[in-house]
Design a protein that fits this description.
Elements: E1 7-13, E2 25-28, E3 39-43, E4 48-52, H1 63-67, E5 68-73, E6 80-84, E7 94-99, E8 102-111, E9 120-130, E10 135-141, E11 151-156, E12 160-165, E13 168-174, E14 184-187, E15 192-196, E16 201-206, H2 207-212, H3 219-228, E17 237-240, E18 245-249, E19 259-264, E20 267-272, E21 277-282, E22 287-294, E23 301-307, E24 311-316, E25 319-325, E26 330-336, E27 344-349, E28 353-358, H4 378-398, H5 404-407, E29 411-417, E30 431-432, E31 435-436, E32 439-448, E33 453-461, E34 465-467, E35 471-473, E36 482-491, E37 501-510, E38 519-528, E39 535-538, E40 546-552, H6 559-562, E41 577-582, E42 587-592, E43 598-603, H7 609-626, E44 634-635, H8 642-684, H9 689-692, H10 695-704
Antiparallel strand pairs: 1-28, 2-3, 3-4, 4-5, 6-7, 7-8, 8-9, 10-11, 11-12, 12-13, 14-15, 15-16, 16-17, 18-19, 19-20, 20-21, 22-23, 23-24, 24-25, 26-27, 27-28, 29-32, 30-31, 32-36, 33-35, 33-37, 34-36, 37-38, 39-41, 40-43, 40-44, 41-42, 42-43
Length: 705
């Protein structure tokens, strides 16, 4: 443990319950201000994108509101954010945001404000690419030696490298022998891509080799084609590490030779760009992230490294130069320059602790003046002390540390889900699998403490759940006003949802003395939909292919008391067994042991047991809490059902592969049919104009069929 602590220059905790990872942070001049100072861009798995321009706190200043330039909520999680020259017609920096199924490129611009509140920033979508495969990470650079622009390479979860030449899609290649995705980086000097495969070895692929390799639609096709014809994709060089890699970084410090830094679980590797080891440093701790950067000493590189002991370490090649204590465990680290201080260390933890810190001590230029010795008048000192104590008591009695008005929400939301299903269902699909699809009404009460302007409400639920209306434009509300909004939720897909909860957000503007036009604000709340929305009571057949047993520390209870809305079809009033028939899936059975404190959940489908298992745990907690029981515990003592889990994943992947092949076959047949149509029209158009006037219409109808 270091005697020194990293000094906080600026810090902030982002959101509540949000998660962040390695690619969720980047720094740079995102708005192209030309000032030479950086902004911080942070994305989260909850879909939030925030941009900050930090500065140290001043007296009576709200640093969080003043430092945050922009906040945007996306419907998809944000996996990675990067800054680069991603637009063909512009050499300005643009922001690339990677979602699981989408790549979006935005332009960030700022408009000077007319009031003291500050400038206004906007996020404008330039272009986006919908991905056919689930993305894992991305890297960018001047692929192929282009100048003035950057291309993007995305690695999918199934081992495909997808190349995007700005607004257009280039090509895709599957990595050979792929199992699990690893870190990915680009080396500018050799025009190569560096990754670490699941065989624990570093692999290097040249961009030229990837571009001319055999194209394929699936990994199976790639393997077959590489054995028969075309150029087989092979690595330029490989190096066995013998351990998993956390990250790869190729700092652009020298035009003569590039250094490839690989952070392993127990070692730090520095490689030459031809795959030879330059040096290796054994670590006595578990690292969490690192960042190589240029050193002031020629021929060496500095490395910032963070570990799970809350330490920030500075290495010059293999030599430890400094160590400082942090307040959290970062998952990513960057170095940024701001208006009042350069070279600040920016760190982000998995739970959203964003810090700008520096190492060393604060410089002090104050010299205490020489005090002339004089006699102390104790009566005057005692009188002054009493006056000051009176002032302190009055100030403590009349006000809090924060003004009361600032701690209360200006707009409060309350969502109430109806205890009964709608008599007339509002579902788009009236039936699924021969069963009616119900709906339930959600009532949202909106109360304003002060006057709010232009409120807009957004409703978000987990797919395939849907609502009758997800966007509401409300009237402006005065102080103390209340508004009620109703909508219905229902199932709108042929698979069960992963979660029954939903989120409601209301964005509005609140006027202040300095900004009468209003400051944008957001209020949020959450609601939980009933289980009856996706399943109905069923008879309890006491058999099933998949079984999970839950242990408790209390005697068995009547399942009808816990599930009164599902006990109507229990056989022979048997309170120890309940059946749940999922509308989109199989039947799930819950059995209570009559002699032990165990409960069993079983079904013919492994994935269908999740919703019932989660509902069972939540209802048990509420039931025993209503009885005043505080020591209730439930546990799962059996082996983790990994074989069943992997079987479900493999089955899902096979369905996706078959669907993709069928879609590709249809596309191929459509192209062939169009070619035949053009040949026929070209051959016979001048000979028989009468009958062939309807040939194009006839073949167009056949093509559509």
């Amino acid at each position: 443990m270091s005697l020194f602590k990293a000094r906080d220059w600026w810090a902030l905790t982002l959101g509540e319950g949000e998660e962040f990872d390695q690619g969720c942070l980047c720094v740079g001049d995102v708005d192209n201000s030309g000032s030479g100072y950086d902004k911080i861009v942070v994305g989260s798995f909850m879909g939030m994108l925030r941009i900050f321009s930090p500065h140290p706190a001043k007296p009576d200043e709200l640093t969080e509101a003043d430092a945050q330039l922009l906040e945007v909520q996306f419907p998809e999680p944000v996996i990675q954010v990067e800054l680069g020259k991603f637009v063909s017609c512009s050499e300005l920096l643009h922001l690339a945001v990677l979602h699981p199924r989408k790549l979006s490129v935005y332009a960030v611009s700022g408009t000077a404000g007319n009031v003291e509140h500050g400038d206004q920033y906007q996020l404008r979508l330039v272009y986006e690419h919908n991905l056919q495969r689930t993305a894992c990470n991305m890297t960018y650079g001047p692929f192929g030696g282009v100048t003035g622009h950057h291309f993007i390479c995305i690695q999918s979860m199934d081992g495909m490298l997808m190349f995007f030449e700005q607004e257009s899609y280039g090509f895709g290649r599957f990595l050979p022998g792929f199992l699990l995705p690893g870190p990915l980086s680009y080396c500018i000097r050799t025009d190569s891509f560096i990754t670490v495969s699941s065989t624990r070895q570093v692999e290097c692929y040249r961009y030229e080799t990837l571009a001319v390799a055999t194209d394929a639609d699936t990994r199976q096709d790639s393997d077959q084609q590489s054995k028969s014809s075309g150029k087989r994709l092979t690595a330029d060089w490989t190096l066995v590490l013998g351990e998993e890699a956390l990250d790869i970084c190729v700092p652009n410090t020298s035009p003569v030779m590039s250094s490839i830094f690989v952070l392993g679980e127990r070692n730090l590797f520095c490689l030459k760009d031809n795959g030879q080891i330059r040096f290796m440093k054994k670590l006595e701790f578990n690292p969490s992230c690192f960042l190589p950067y240029a050193s002031v000493s020629e021929g060496s590189t500095n490395v910032l490294m963070c570990n799970h002991n809350n330490m920030l370490l500075v290495y010059q090649d293999m030599t430890l130069k400094w160590a400082a204590q942090l307040s959290c465990v970062p998952v990513t680290v960057r170095v940024a320059n701001f208006s009042e201080l350069k070279g600040l260390v920016v760190t982000l933890s998995s739970d959203g602790r964003l810090q700008c810190s520096y190492m060393g001590t604060d410089p002090s230029f104050f010299t205490a003046p020489k005090v002339e010795a004089r006699e102390v008048n104790y009566d005057e000192v005692d009188t002054e002390m009493k006056v000051l104590q009176k002032v302190i008591r009055e100030a403590t009695r009349t006000q809090d540390i924060l003004p009361r008005a600032e701690t209360e929400e200006e707009l409060s939301l309350t969502a109430v889900v109806s205890s009964k299903l709608d008599e007339v269902s509002c579902a788009v699909m009236a039936e699924m699998n021969g069963m009616p699809v119900p709906s339930v009404t959600v009532q949202v009460k909106i109360r304003s403490r002060t006057a709010v302007q232009s409120p807009k409400m957004t409703v978000c639920v987990q797919p395939p759940l849907a609502v009758t209306q997800d966007q509401f434009v409300l009237d402006s509300m005065g102080s103390g006003c209340e508004s009620v909004v109703r909508f219905s939720a229902f199932l709108n897909g042929l698979y069960p949802p992963a979660d029954m909860s939903g989120d409601i957000a209301v964005s509005y503007s609140s006027a202040t003395e300095l900004n009468p036009a209003g400051i944008p604000r957001v209020s949020q709340c959450r609601f939980v939909l009933p289980l009856r929305l996706v399943c109905c009571p069923s008879s309890a057949i006491k058999n099933g292919k998949y079984k999970i047993t839950m242990d408790t520390n209390k005697p068995p209870i009547n399942l009808s008391d816990v599930f009164p809305d599902f006990s109507e079809k229990s056989e022979n009033n048997d309170s120890s067994a309940l059946g749940f028939q999922l509308i989109t899936g199989s039947r799930v059975i819950v059995l209570a042991s009559k002699t032990s404190q165990r409960y069993r959940i079983q079904s013919e489908s492994f994935e269908d047991m999740w919703l019932v298992a989660k509902e069972l745990v939540q209802r048990f907690d509420r039931h025993f809490a209503s009885l005043g029981v505080k020591d209730f515990r439930n546990s799962f003592t059996g082996p983790v059902p990994l074989p069943e889990y992997f079987e479900t994943v493999d089955h899902h992947f096979e369905l996706r592969v078959n669907a993709q092949k069928y879609q590709d076959l249809l596309s191929e047949r459509a192209v062939q049919f169009r070619a035949i149509q053009r040949r026929l029209l070209t051959r016979f158009k001048d000979k028989t104009p009468g009958p062939l006037q309807n040939l194009d219409t006839l073949m167009e109808g056949t093509y559509r069929q």
